């Protein structure tokens, strides 16, 4: 097998490692490409291609994350990971860990860790790497890596998100939610929301977004019902879709361009959190992106009574 063939075989794993460390599809893809360049430039084939590439993509991702931290501190409004529709890496033996680590809530929790803690946690807890491999990847001793893993696990366990275990139940609830949303059914929405539900948006200052979190079932239900009617009038479509392994949707304009994504956290038969990503820079990998400002203007225009100019 050639180097290129081995690399392509391992690409899904490398992307999945990088995405969980970085929370960015575009940065993860860049990290994987840099990893290929380093493999291509290596004078001799590595003893274990998987171990070598996993170590390289981890080190590249740590470096990128350190510089990204500064940009995220200056980010306008809440920062969310770039939505991921499909995880390219599948491992039946670690399917639970892979799914849990992909959610928006888990990735936001990972943001609280240092870059080294985050990398060690991802390699150990999500992908099941041994400490000798992890030590080689992050350039620390095995003992230091074990300490990093303990600290990271403690932080993650303290705030670890819990979700409805039954995937079918989650999907059925999400289907009812999006049906009620399309219809602007306040009562139907309210009964599906937790009493203290939060609706949070990431516009990054580059798209229209509510000024602060919307909290409470009544407030969220009424806001959703109020915004959907003018959106439906101008041809907006709600496309149910798994977003970061959780029930969600892609909102598209009449031309099929992406306006935003929604991801739902579901627990105890109720929606706990609704996260919207509308920053166009975070949606380009999903498909052609709509001009959200233009969509909002058209939706607002549709609210106004039309004047009969034939009289």
TrEMBL record:
Translocase is among the record's keywords: no
GO CC annotation terms, alphabetical: DNA-directed RNA polymerase complex
InterPro entries tied to this protein: ECF_Sigma-70_Domain, NTF2-like_dom_sf, RNA_pol_sigma-70_dom, RNA_pol_sigma-70_ECF, RNA_pol_sigma70_r2, RNA_pol_sigma70_r4_t2, RNA_pol_sigma_r2, RNA_pol_sigma_r3/r4-like
GO BP of this protein: DNA-templated transcription initiation
Leader sequence segment: none
Pfam families reported for this sequence: Sigma70_r2, Sigma70_r4_2
Alphabetic keyword roster: DNA-directed RNA polymerase, Sigma factor, Transcription, Transcription regulation
Location of the RNA polymerase sigma-70 region domain: 7-69
Domain spans labelled RNA polymerase sigma factor 70 region 4 type: 105-156
Subunit structure: Interacts transiently with the RNA polymerase catalytic core formed by RpoA, RpoB, RpoC and RpoZ (2 alpha, 1 beta, 1 beta' and 1 omega subunit) to form the RNA polymerase holoenzyme that can initiate transcription.
Family of this protein: Belongs to the sigma-70 factor family. ECF subfamily.
Listed name of the protein: DNA-directed RNA polymerase sigma-70 factor
Origin species: Streptomyces albiflavescens
Taxonomic lineage from the root: Bacteria, Bacillati, Actinomycetota, Actinomycetes, Kitasatosporales
């Amino acid at each position: 097998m050639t180097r290129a063939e081995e690399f392509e075989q391992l690409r899904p794993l490398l992307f999945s490692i990088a995405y969980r460390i970085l929370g960015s599809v575009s940065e993860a893809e860049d990290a994987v490409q840099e990893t290929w360049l380093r493999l291509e430039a290596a004078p001799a084939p590595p003893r274990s291609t998987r171990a070598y590439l996993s170590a390289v993509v981890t080190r590249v991702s740590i470096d990128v994350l350190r510089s990204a931290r500064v940009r995220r501190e200056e980010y306008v409004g809440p920062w969310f990971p770039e939505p991921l529709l499909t995880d390219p890496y599948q491992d039946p033996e670690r399917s639970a860990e892979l799914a849990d680590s992909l959610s928006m809530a888990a990735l936001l929790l990972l943001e609280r860790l240092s870059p080294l803690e985050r990398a060690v946690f991802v390699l150990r807890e999500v992908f099941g790497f041994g400490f000798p491999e992890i030590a080689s990847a992050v350039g620390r001793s095995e003992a230091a890596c074990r300490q990093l893993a303990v600290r990271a696990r403690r932080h993650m366990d303290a705030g670890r998100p819990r979700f409805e275990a039954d995937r079918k139940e989650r999907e059925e609830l999400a289907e009812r939610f999006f049906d009620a949303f399309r219809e602007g059914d306040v009562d139907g929405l309210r009964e599906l929301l937790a009493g203290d539900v939060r609706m949070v948006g990431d516009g990054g200052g580059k798209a229209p977004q509510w000024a602060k979190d919307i909290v409470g079932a009544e407030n969220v239900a009424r806001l959703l019902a109020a915004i959907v009617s003018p959106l439906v009038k101008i041809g907006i479509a709600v496309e149910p879709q798994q977003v970061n392994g959780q029930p969600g949707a892609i909102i598209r304009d009449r031309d099929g361009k992406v306006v935003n994504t929604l991801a739902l956290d579901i627990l105890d038969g109720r929606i706990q959190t609704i996260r919207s990503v509308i920053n166009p820079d975070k949606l380009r990998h999903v498909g052609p992106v709509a001009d959200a400002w233009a969509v909002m203007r058209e939706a607002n225009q549709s609210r106004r009574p039309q004047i009969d100019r034939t009289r």
